[in-house]
Every structure is written in structure tokens, then in C-alpha cells.
Design a protein that fits this description.
Layout lengths: L3 E11 L2 E10 L4 E6 L7 H7 L3 H17 L6 E4 L13 E6 L11 E4 L2 E4 L8 E5 L6 H12 L7 H18 L2
Parallel strand pairs: 1-4, 4-5
Antiparallel strand pairs: 1-2, 2-3, 5-8, 6-7, 7-8
Length: about 180
Amino acid sequence: MGSLLGYLVVKPVRELVYMGGLGVFNEFGIPQEFRYTDPVEPTEVQRILFGDSLDLAVRVKVVGESLIKELSVSPEYIIVGAKDMLQIRSSVPIAYLEHTQHAPLEDVGKYVAEGEGYLVQLYPAQSPYYLLLAGKKKDVSKLVDILVEFAMHIADVIEPLKRVEGVIDYIYNTQYKL
């Protein structure tokens, strides 16, 4: 069996109401597990108490970390849909990926330090991705190997985030939107 990656999206579905989804996919982009939250709306007391940190606290602690704890399948890494979600505390390493406009690196699988993260070449003759890893202990080479494995089978290693977001939107619009 190949590697598994989790893809986590937490988003506002209306003002101060959040939903999250976490899909675990194999290297072929086939979902192995999917979890989502019901809409989460902070109380007035929480709004006052958390102040400006409310948005991040709800997305990271209440929604993101709870979804990870519910998984029955263990991915090697979880890719998050927003940089600030790197603050999630989890036994599963957390990473963030984005497209770049940089010139391609020499070879697929090559990575170089860039700012706080890395430029990672996953596809031949395409711009590299920008990778950020959470935490102090960072095994970049292991994640790059997994991402290269995924890139051999799916056209964009970030694309499963769009599917997770699409499911969140669908569930909200069909089950919760009034």
C-alpha cells in the first residue's frame, strides 16, 4: 500500500460560523476517509473572551484539531488550506503547499530552502511548489518523497483541497443553509 496524505480545509460558511473537512487520500487521489464538522458558531461569551483571536482559535483548536483526532486512518502528513493552520498541534505532521511562479528546479524531487520553507519540484518543467512545515522537527525529504509519489498519479497535489472545500460547501448548502 502506498502513502496517505490528509487534506484539511476550515472555512467560514457565514459570518463567525465555520465548517471544516478532512479527507485522507491515497497516491492516486482516491479518498480513504472523510470527516467534517457541523457548523460551529462561537457563543457571545467566547466572542468577547477571545476577541481578535476568535477566528484563528475556532479554526485551529475547535475545528481543525478535533477533525484530526477523529480520524481512523492515519495519514503521513496533513496538508492544510491556509498558512495559519500550521499552528495546529497534532501527532501527524502539518504542512502547507502553494503554487509559485519560480523557474523550475533541475529535477523532480529536488528542494531548496526559500525563506521559512522550501521550493519543491514535483512535476517536470513546471514551477516548483512552496512548502512550509509546522514544528521544529522537520523531515522535508520524507514529505517530498510522498509528494513526488502523489505527483506521479495526480495532476496537482493541491487539488484534493479543492475537493474537500467543495464537499464542505455542498453539505452546508444542502443541509444547513436556510
